[in-house]
Amino acid sequence: MPYITSLLQDKDQNKLSYGKTIFIGLGFLIIMATWSLYNAFVPIFLKRFVAGETLIGLIMTLDNIAAITLQPYFGALSDNTYSRFGHRMPFMIIGIPIAALFFALIPLADNFWLLLVFIIIMNLAMSVFRSPTVALMPDLTPSPLRSKANGVVNFMGGVGAILTYGLAARLYELNPAFPFILFSLLLLVILLAFLMKLREPERPRTGEQIKIWQIVGEIFRTRERRILYILMAIFFWFFGYAGVETFFTLYGRNYLLIKESTAAQALLFFSLTFVLFAIPSGILAGKYSRKKIITIGIIGLIVVFSGLALTSDLLVIRLVLLIGGIFWAFININSYPMVVDQAGDKIGAYTGVYYFFSTIPAILAPVFVGFLIERLGYGILFISAIFSFMLALFFILKIKD
Predict the structure, then answer these.
(1) pLDDT digits (tens, 9 = 90+) for 112-131
(2) Which of 22, 154, 240, 257 is the most core-located residue (most Cβ within 10 A)?
(3) Which contacts of 303-311 are long-range, i.e. CB under 8 A and separated by 24 or more positions?
(4) Which domains does the chain have, with CATH numbers?
(5) 228-244: b or e for each residue (b if 16 or more CB lie within 10 Å)?
(6) Eight-state DSSP code of residue 202
């Protein structure tokens, strides 16, 4: 295979090369697989040394804290980087080996402080290369094809999560260290593959130093409100989603009176159709516009959450969640391309800004929705999500085509 310099088909510059996009998506696959494994089993390792769930929960938010602080910084820094390896690759060369090493060491820690050091260094190293890695897709793809490409990349991310819950869970039963070592090796293999087969497009030096907080300030100060409206819509639909995701299992136990495992299994229906419709969502956006497909997705999820608020029948809930995953794909697949379309030559910085606005809700929503549930009961769960998505709809409709 020749060097990949774009995700276009070699003989047709208006069509996406799915083979090349799948190759680029390997980076997102292993990132999602690694985080899925981390979220699933690191709390178990922490529980060996920590009695209280509050401290465990605090430590497990380190990745979200990094997403709103370090990832935007390194995304912007990659825009300012010019090297023989490209703009994004140096961050992968530095971050991936360190992350892989300390990720593999996590299950081997024999005391709390050593485990905490491994977790912190792994999170720092992952923050170095996550935004630059994700920015590779828009770097290599013209704007009209970015939704299609993002659909493929997110499909690969879904495959990574499935890989974790399937293969990694079985390896964990054999030895808790095995899946961590395997995924660490896969990180290194994918880095090597990128070094051998990927060439980033050259960009002229502008002399401009891109600083992340200046960009955030510009977004809020500019008279052109398009990017701000997009980011506010992203904030509110992730806020609504994060609240439901956090409390759905408890909602099942305390409100529907079903087992936690049964409630968790119901969410698999949502995830399944999200993965299956990741690529079709991008194709539809290329045909009808991202704004239209996202708008359909938001309205669809408002209807879905309304239905979930009105039923306690488990079969109906599963069917509604199955439909909900389709609408979530309509939204989620097309939001990142909408952001980087406004970036110009600041794709890394805007990737970091995207992660900022999509991660803040994961920190704030559980606290706010938990407060509402304590005072109003679990029946408020989907009502709060409906209001969040209505606010997202308000902002997306303010965007001019």
Answers:
(1) 999 999 999 999 999 999 88
(2) 240
(3) 305/240, 305/244, 305/382, 305/385, 305/386, 305/389, 306/382, 306/386, 308/382, 309/379, 309/381, 309/382, 309/383, 309/386
(4) 8-200 (1.20.1250.20), 213-397 (1.20.1250.20)
(5) bbbbbbbbbbbbbbbbb
(6) P
